[in-house]
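About this split. The held-out portion is used to measure sequence recovery: a designer receives only the structure tokens and must propose an amino acid at every position. Recovery is the fraction of positions where the proposal matches the reference. Here is one held-out target exactly as it appears in the evaluation file.
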């Protein structure tokens, strides 16, 4: 557990450095008052499969992926398990990639991709499963929203980062292709 904590801390520090690094290339036209440059770290397919397995996703589920990146989690949930999905991301480039993923996987009828703030999803209460790979600050902000909006029985799986005060129902160290990932599962009471 100590090894995983150190790896997670190290990853968080690297992410903080990357996010705060000047001259990231895609901010040529960025103004000071624009939205922040957002870090995107794709979740390996093996980890996506483990996350869906931990949440026991089935055809009847509606999977929300907050910070969906390229849409691989909701696409996999739809294609392999028949679940419906909603992916939300703030970055227009990720939205474009998500829509391409959804089309490539042939799950357009099951998955909706939305551009927007993942902390302001109006219909989050429709989720039966919520998937996350977000930094600690996001997790801190999401916790009271999740407590208020999510229905009892909703499963939440987070990759590498947990809610600040919720004790997970399950914590798994999962060996991925390049490193060990920590996955957390909560079931809303």
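Reference sequence for scoring:
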């Amino acid at each position: 557990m100590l090894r995983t904590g150190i790896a997670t801390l190290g990853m968080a520090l690297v992410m903080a450095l990357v996010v705060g690094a000047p001259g990231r290339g895609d901010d040529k036209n960025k103004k000071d008052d624009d939205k922040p440059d957002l870090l995107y770290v794709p979740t390996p397919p093996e980890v996506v499969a483990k996350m869906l397995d931990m949440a026991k996703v089935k055809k009847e589920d509606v999977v929300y992926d907050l910070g969906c990146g390229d849409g691989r989690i909701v696409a996999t949930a739809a294609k392999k398990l028949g679940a419906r999905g909603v992916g939300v991301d703030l970055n227009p480039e990720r939205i474009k990639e998500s829509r391409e993923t959804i089309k490539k996987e042939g799950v357009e009828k099951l998955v909706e991709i939305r551009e927007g703030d993942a902390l302001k999803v109006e219909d989050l209460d429709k989720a039966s499963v919520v998937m996350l790979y977000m930094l600690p600050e996001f997790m801190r902000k999401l916790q009271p929203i999740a407590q208020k909006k999510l229905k009892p029985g909703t499963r939440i799986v987070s990759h590498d980062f947990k809610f600040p005060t919720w004790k997970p129902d399950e914590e798994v160290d999962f060996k991925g292709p390049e490193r060990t990932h920590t996955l957390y599962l909560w079931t809303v009471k």
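Annotator remark: The chain has a mean pLDDT of 85.
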